[in-house]
């Protein structure tokens, strides 16, 4: 098992955001995590990848917005819930955050270069990986010298995923890649995510677009109000009328 999350809970002060979450991701799977806005999907990804931490003390030494976590996260058989985010990345668990967030004043190439900070710049491995990225996202090769802040939304999302791929992930967690994109752009982007999965990279995909996610994912988890309400194959979940109407909006 590549990723195992056991009884994970997250609370902000007295508000429970996630309660007793249990998920598993096997090697070479594309697993979907779907649910309505505010269900806790992004918080779950952030907790898995080490980005949910205690907030800093204020000037008076008091905790502000105190975050509590419980449960365990294992990656490749090793507990990682105690590790900082940068060490988790080095192990091959990579988070591609929502809303793209390129380094807006840098070129496309410079963004990819920044993403490859674990590789030797201009080395054989870097050049090989860069060519693979350009093959998967030809528009990024065309726009290599363009300032990333001037790209379209779809192009920025491709850049965000490409930058994450420069870290050579064993498991790539992609958070809400379709936000703000036109349907035809979303469809094209999801085809490329599917190609990444076929290349052998395991993917945990967080999305609100259930229909698109279910066309790609081998298994899915449904999250609502911070709790997992169901899991299963796309076909099984779509055949459950209660799940379709209550949680999938179909």
Provide keyphrases for this structure:
250 residues; alpha/beta; Rossmann fold; ATP binding; amino-acid transport; ATP-binding; ABC_transporter-like_ATP-bd; ATP hydrolysis activity
Write the layout of secondary structure elements.
Elements: E1 3-12, E2 15-25, E3 30-34, H1 41-48, E4 67-75, E5 78-79, H2 85-90, E6 93-96, H3 108-115, H4 124-136, H5 138-142, H6 153-165, E7 171-175, H7 183-198, E8 202-207, H8 210-216, E9 219-224, E10 227-232, H9 234-238, H10 241-248
Parallel strand pairs: 3-8, 3-9, 6-7, 7-8
Antiparallel strand pairs: 1-2, 1-4, 4-5, 9-10
Helix pairs in contact: 3-6
Keywords: Amino-acid transport, ATP-binding, Nucleotide-binding, Transport
Family: Belongs to the ABC transporter superfamily.
Organism: Dethiobacter alkaliphilus AHT 1
Protein described:
The protein has ten helices and ten strands. The protein is an alpha/beta fold and 250 residues long. The protein has a six-stranded mixed sheet, sandwiched between helices. Helix 3 runs parallel beside helix 6 (153-165). It is globular and about 50 Å long.
């Amino acid at each position: 098992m590549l990723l195992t999350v056991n009884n994970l809970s997250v609370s902000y002060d007295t508000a429970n955001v996630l309660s007793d979450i249990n998920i598993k991701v096997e090697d070479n799977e594309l697993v979907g995590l779907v649910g309505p806005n505010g269900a806790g999907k992004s918080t779950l990804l952030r907790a898995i990848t080490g980005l949910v931490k205690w907030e800093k003390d204020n000037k008076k030494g008091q905790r502000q917005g105190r975050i509590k976590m419980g449960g365990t996260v294992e990656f490749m058989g090793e507990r990682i819930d105690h590790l900082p985010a940068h060490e988790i990345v080095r192990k091959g668990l990579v988070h591609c955050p929502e809303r793209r967030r390129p380094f807006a004043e840098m070129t496309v190439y410079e963004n990819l270069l920044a993403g490859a900070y674990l590789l030797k710049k201009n080395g054989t491995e870097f050049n090989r990986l860069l060519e693979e990225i350009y093959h998967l996202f030809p528009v990024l090769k065309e726009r290599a010298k363009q300032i990333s802040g001037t790209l379209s939304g779809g192009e920025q999302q491709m850049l965000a995923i490409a930058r994450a791929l420069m870290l050579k992930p064993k498991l790539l967690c992609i958070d809400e890649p379709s936000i703000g994109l036109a349907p035809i752009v979303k469809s094209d982007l999801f085809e490329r995510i599917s190609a990444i999965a076929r290349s052998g990279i395991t993917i945990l995909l967080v999305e609100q677009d259930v229909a698109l996610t279910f066309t790609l994912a081998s298994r899915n988890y449904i999250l609502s109000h911070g709790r997992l309400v169901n899991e299963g194959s796309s076909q099984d979940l779509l055949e459950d009328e209660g799940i379709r109407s209550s949680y999938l909006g179909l």
